[in-house]
Every structure is written in structure tokens, then in C-alpha cells.
């Protein structure tokens, strides 16, 4: 299978997140991705806005946004920071968003106050509303998150390319797509009702979920189904780590089932 070299734009403020950026860039290089970020401009918060926006819109496949407690540099006669402008300009591509956890110790000099803090909170609230954000507490945890998510996007791109090269007819592809979605819906229902992960049915459903998550469902181009899979996956990981079923996992599974049902109606009718 041909490897696609992802070109990733990593957006953040700089001075407060310098070490975090380095860890993320190291992880991207290990994946074989190409980082085309602010460091080419001398790595400063007052980087050339127009060139950054051009890189995002014309030379990037993926946008990674990392945000802590600084809103960023606001150019003269403008009302938003370069960091927020970068996020806004990436609206036509996949955006992966990472926020520092609120309880993470942070240097006071890197925490905004006053109007900048208010602008930052409004921006972060919009991010939390519009994206499934991941919250990090260290540079290593952040790098792990980014490596997993970018790796998944890389695999998704490779799978789509492979599907285009297959010899399946249009009808066969549609039939296989329906089978995959129905299987995911069935697995979601089993997990929603499960009380323990160690029973045979639950263990089989969990295993099948991860097979679908990292396999056939990567090629599904539906943001609601994708979001639902991510949220159920996060719930399953919490269940494993805490040895207790998350109180909202049933609702997450229901939302995924509803998203799948909606796609089935759109693709195949009633």
C-alpha cells in the first residue's frame, strides 16, 4: 500500500508550549508526517500571519491545534490572534484539537489575564462546542494523543486510496458498507447494555468494536459516525482503566447507533 506523507500544520502559541511542540513534532516525524509549522519563521508568536494562513490552506492535509492559557499575538488593527486566525482558516480540513487540562500546573507568566483571558475563554468554549477535544497534562501525553490521532487519519487516507483501487462494483461496495454499519450498530447495542466487560458477549463486542474502529469504519466519511466511534472508544478505555462502566457510556452508544441509522437512511433509504 502506498504511504501518504501527511503535511501537518501544528498551531499554538509558542513560548508557553515550546517543549510540547517539540514532543509533538518528534512524534509526527516518527509517523513519517511532514511538519510545516511556525518554526520555519523563527518560531515566535509574532509570526507572519498571511504566510501561515497560506500554508494551512494550500500546503496542509491536517491541522493540529494545541491551546493552553495564552490567547496569542493580535496584529495591529485586528480583533483576533494569529493563533485563532490559523484555526479559522483550517475550516476546510480535518482539525484535531488539544487543550491543557485545567488542573495542570502552569507558570503564572504564561497565563493570560484581563481581555486576553476573556478572548481565550470564548475561543476555547467554541472549541469544546464544535470538536471532541482531548485534554493533556504533560508534553508526553500530548505527543501520545497526537501520534494516535494523526496515525488514524493517515490510515484512513490509505484505506480510502486502497478502496479506490479495488475491483468491487459500486453495488458490492454499497452492500459491504451497509454490512459494516449494521455490524457497528449491533456492537454498540451490546456494549450499551453490558454490565461487565468480562462476559463472553461483552468481550467479543469490545474486540469487534476495536477491529471496526481501526479497520473498515476508518473509511466511513460521516462526521457524526466518526465522532460517535471516538466517544464510545474513549468510554471503553475509561471502563478498562477504572474497572467501572462510565455512567454516560450507554448514552454514547445510543448516539452512535442513531448516527449510524441516519447514515443508513441517507445511503440506502428506508
How many helices? The count is 9
Structural class: alpha/beta
| Helix share bin | 55-70%
Strand proportion, as a percent range, falls in 5-15%
Largest sheet: 5 strands, parallel
Helix and strand element order = EHEHEHEHEHHHHH
Name the CATH superfamily assignment of the largest domain. Answer: Toll/interleukin-1 receptor homology (TIR) domain
Shape: globular
Which architecture of the largest domain would the CATH scheme give at its second level? 3-Layer(aba) Sandwich
Structure description:
The protein has 270 residues and is an alpha/beta fold. It folds into 2 domains: 7-150, Rossmann fold (3-Layer(aba) Sandwich); 168-268. It has 9 helices and 5 strands. It has helices at 18-31, 49-59, 82-89, 115-130, 139-165, 170-193, 200-214, 223-242, 249-268; strands spanning 7-11, 34-35, 62-67, 94-100, 134-136. A 5-stranded parallel beta sheet has the order 2-1-3-4-5, with helices on both faces. Strand 4, helix 4 and strand 5 form a beta-alpha-beta unit. Helix 1 (18-31) runs parallel beside helix 5 and helix 2 packs parallel to helix 3. It is globular and about 60 Å long. It starts with 6 loop residues before the first strand and ends with a helix.
Amino acid at each position: 500500500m502506498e504511504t501518504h506523507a501527511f503535511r501537518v500544520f501544528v498551531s499554538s502559541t509558542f513560548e508557553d508550549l515550546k517543549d510540547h511542540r517539540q514532543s509533538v513534532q518528534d512524534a509526527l516525524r516518527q509517523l513519517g508526517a511532514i511538519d510545516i509549522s511556525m518554526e520555519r519563521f523563527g518560531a515566535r508568536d509574532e509570526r507572519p500571519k498571511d504566510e501561515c494562513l497560506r500554508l494551512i490552506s494550500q500546503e496542509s492535509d491536517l491541522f493540529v491545534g494545541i491551546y493552553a492559557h495564552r490567547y496569542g499575538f493580535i496584529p495591529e488593527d485586528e480583533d483576533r490572534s494569529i493563533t485563532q486566525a490559523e484555526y479559522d482558516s483550517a475550516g476546510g480540513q480535518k482539525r484535531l484539537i488539544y487543550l491543557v487540562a485545567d488542573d495542570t500546573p502552569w507558570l503564572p507568566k504564561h497565563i493570560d489575564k484581563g481581555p486576553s483571558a476573556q478572548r481565550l475563554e470564548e475561543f476555547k468554549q467554541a472549541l469544546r462546542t464544535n470538536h471532541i477535544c482531548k485534554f493533556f497534562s504533560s508534553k508526553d501525553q500530548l505527543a501520545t494523543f497526537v501520534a494516535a490521532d494523526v496515525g488514524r487519519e493517515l490510515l484512513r487516507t490509505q484505506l480510502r486510496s486502497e478502496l479506490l483501487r479495488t475491483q468491487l462494483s459500486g453495488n458490492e461496495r454499497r452492500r459491504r458498507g451497509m454490512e459494516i454499519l449494521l455490524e457497528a450498530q449491533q456492537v454498540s447495542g451490546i456494549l450499551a447494555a453490558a454490565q461487565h466487560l468480562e462476559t463472553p458477549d461483552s468481550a467479543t463486542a469490545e474486540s469487534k468494536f476495536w477491529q471496526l474502529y481501526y479497520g473498515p469504519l476508518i473509511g466511513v466519511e460521516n462526521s457524526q459516525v466518526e465522532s460517535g466511534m471516538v466517544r464510545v472508544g474513549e468510554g471503553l478505555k475509561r471502563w478498562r482503566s477504572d474497572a467501572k462502566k462510565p455512567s454516560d457510556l450507554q448514552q454514547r452508544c445510543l448516539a452512535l447507533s442513531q448516527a449510524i441509522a441516519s447514515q443508513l437512511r441517507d445511503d440506502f433509504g428506508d
